[in-house]
């Protein structure tokens, strides 16, 4: 009897289809059979044969490209969704325009006790300086204002926000981060890394209903961009409960895997972390951070930053304590994700994984390092040797955003910047994502454009930024689909359009395989299906078998 469920599933795949997509160009993602011209869906899964009947809906796609749904393998979805209610500075790159956006939001939202938002970029301020409290005081002085960078690692506060947080010239912060000060020693209004919490703890907590509504908005946005699965890089029981409520209400329209944020947790706390495994909602991973970001010089580097200083950036853990924490989580059966951006951070994470594998060598841990914006060449082959997955965000290498980044890295290290091709060539399995809202775009298409071109969306006549690290279109698509499924131990259920897997798929407006690569960013999502159900677009029409 134990084979009965398998037999029933197998038979259903050959039964009359619920939906047939015909006259299509289907990239399945399966190397053994990469292309098809039609697709059948039954009971939310890809069917083995195209069989129609009286109840089958048939959609003629007119030759449009169908691909597996995008899998965003590193995202902060709840936070990004909440920011859809806030000031959005994404793409605004003059101080005057940012001030106007803040003032407009304040006027339109007179009942908001705090003005909050995000999206500003480091290089958009005069002389690439950090923003100052006076910049905000000039437009909003009667309410506290707190705005995070696009990468989420630096905050910008006005004078009232600093007063509420009791941040003065005498305030000391000894954690991972910094209260930035002006020449006179006064807080400038910029706060790096953990120091943002001094203001952040005073922000009004959104109601549960606001958070649920934010997730609904976020899911609609994700569906419009072809995202059918996400792996949330951090969270806890409270955030999990929001997704559980949406699931109970039958409102969860994308598959969610939630990683638990790991600080300096005890064994008892690790044991108490929630575990769940269902088709639409699961846990099973923990996420550590070992350093910060390059633009604020909080990423940990093996050699000093290239700005004439001796700064190397701090590690957020002592290496021996970090190795012990990783080993405990590994022993407890958790998959481990580590934020590491600088080359010293990457090496520290690899060392910890290598040590953990010595104590538990028989496991299939699928360790992951998140971001890897710069790497020492000696560490490139270690990913494949240790089976560590490089989980990276091509959108962070957009040539329009790397001015401060490149200056701090310097010419000597630039060849191993955002080293997608180097890692792939050394045998590592690339996994791509957005890091939203810590990015300039959530759209996988925009990330794929960057991965393939390393040129701006406007196009440039030159060869692009460090073109030797480009990857092929197929590599980029696999990194956003089947590799994401593999990175969450779900490759048997999704990631390719093959019989038996979930019918999570996307129909695109143009075929990136058949256009000039510089036009990839112009591709739009027409339809998104999750488990065979349409969550974006409308495939209904006159084509139907009766």
Note down, in words, how this protein is organized:
This protein is an alpha/beta fold. The protein folds into three domains: 4-63 and 506-514 and 522-536, Urease, subunit C, domain 1 (Roll), CATH 2.30.40.10; 114-200, Diaminopimelate Epimerase, Chain A, domain 1, CATH 3.10.310; 208-489, Alpha-Beta Barrel (TIM Barrel). An eight-stranded parallel sheet has the order 8-15-16-17-18-19-20-21. A six-stranded mixed sheet has the order 3-2-7-22-23-24, with helices on one face. A six-stranded mixed sheet has the order 9-10-11-12-14-13. Strand 15, helix 8 (237-248) and strand 16 form a beta-alpha-beta unit. The longest helix has 17 residues, at 208-224. It is globular and about 75 Å long. It starts with a helix and ends in a 10-residue tail after the last strand.
Topology:
Layout: H1 4-14, E1 19-22, E2 25-27, E3 35-36, E4 39-42, E5 45-46, E6 57-60, E7 65-68, E8 70-75, H2 77-82, E9 87-88, H3 95-108, E10 115-120, H4 133-137, E11 145-149, E12 154-157, H5 159-164, E13 177-181, E14 187-193, H6 197-200, H7 208-224, E15 227-232, H8 237-248, E16 255-261, H9 267-272, E17 281-289, H10 319-331, E18 335-340, H11 343-359, E19 368-371, H12 380-386, E20 389-392, H13 403-409, H14 420-425, E21 431-432, H15 444-453, H16 473-479, H17 482-487, E22 505-508, E23 525-530, E24 533-536
Parallel strand pairs: 1-6, 2-7, 8-15, 9-10, 10-11, 15-16, 16-17, 17-18, 18-19, 19-20, 20-21
Antiparallel strand pairs: 1-4, 2-3, 4-5, 7-22, 11-12, 12-14, 13-14, 22-23, 23-24
Helix pairs in contact: 10-11
């Amino acid at each position: 009897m134990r084979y009965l469920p398998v037999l029933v599933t197998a038979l259903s795949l050959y039964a009359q289809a619920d939906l047939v997509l015909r006259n299509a160009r289907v990239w399945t993602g399966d190397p053994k059979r990469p292309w098809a011209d039609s697709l059948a869906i039954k009971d939310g899964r890809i069917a083995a044969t195209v069989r129609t009947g009286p109840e089958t809906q048939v959609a003629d796609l007119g030759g449009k490209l169908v691909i597996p749904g995008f899998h965003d393998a590193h995202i902060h979805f709840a936070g990004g969704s909440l920011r859809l209610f806030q000031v959005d500075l994404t793409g605004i790159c003059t101080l005057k325009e940012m001030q106007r956006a803040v003032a407009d939001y304040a006027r339109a939202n007179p009942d908001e006790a705090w003005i909050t938002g995000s999206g500003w970029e480091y290089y958009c301020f005069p002389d690439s300086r950090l923003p100052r409290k006076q910049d905000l005081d000039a437009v909003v002085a009667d309410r506290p204002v707190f705005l995070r960078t696009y990468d989420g690692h630096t905050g910008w506060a006005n004078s009232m926000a600093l007063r509420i947080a009791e941040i003065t010239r005498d305030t000391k912060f000894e954690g991972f981060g910094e209260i930035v000060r002006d020449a006179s020693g006064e807080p400038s209004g910029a706060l790096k890394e953990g120091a943002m919490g001094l203001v952040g703890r005073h922000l009004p907590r959104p109601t549960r209903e606001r958070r649920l509504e934010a997730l609904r908005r976020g899911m609609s946005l994700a569906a419009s961009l072809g995202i059918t699965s996400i792996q949330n890089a951090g969270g806890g029981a409270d955030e999990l409960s929001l997704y559980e409520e949406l699931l109970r209400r039958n409102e969860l329209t994308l598959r969610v895997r939630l990683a638990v944020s790991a600080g300096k947790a005890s064994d008892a706390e690790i044991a108490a972390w929630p575990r769940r495994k269902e088709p639409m909602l699961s846990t099973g991973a923990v996420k550590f951070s070992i350093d910060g970001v390059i633009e604020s010089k909080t990423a940990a580097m093996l050699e000093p930053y290239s700005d004439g200083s001796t700064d190397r950036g701090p590690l957020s853990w002592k290496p021996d304590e970090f190795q012990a924490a990783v080993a405990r989580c590994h022993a407890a059966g958790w998959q481990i994700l580590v934020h590491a951006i600088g080359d010293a951070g990457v090496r520290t994470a690899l060392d910890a994984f290598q040590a953990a594998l010595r104590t538990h060598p028989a496991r299939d841990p699928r360790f992951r390092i998140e971001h890897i914006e710069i790497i020492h060449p000696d560490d490139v082959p270690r990913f494949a040797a240790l089976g560590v997955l490089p989980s990276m965000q091509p959108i962070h290498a957009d040539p329009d955003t790397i001015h401060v980044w490149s200056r701090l890295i310097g010419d000597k290290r630039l060849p191993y910047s955002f080293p997608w091709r180097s890692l792939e060539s050394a045998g590592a399995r690339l996994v791509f994502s957005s890091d939203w809202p810590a990015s300039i775009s959530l759209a996988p298409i925009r990330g794929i454009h960057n991965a393939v071109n390393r040129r701006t969306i406007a196009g440039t006549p030159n060869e692009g930024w460090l073109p030797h690290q480009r990857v092929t279109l197929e590599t980029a698509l696999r990194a956003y689909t089947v590799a994401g499924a593999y990175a969450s131990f779900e490759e048997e259920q999704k990631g390719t359009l093959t019989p038996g897997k979930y019918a999570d798929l996307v129909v695109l407006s143009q075929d990136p395989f058949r256009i000039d690569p510089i036009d990839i960013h112009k591709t739009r999502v027409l339809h998104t299906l999750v488990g065979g159900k349409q969550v974006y677009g409308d495939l209904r029409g006159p084509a139907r078998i009766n």
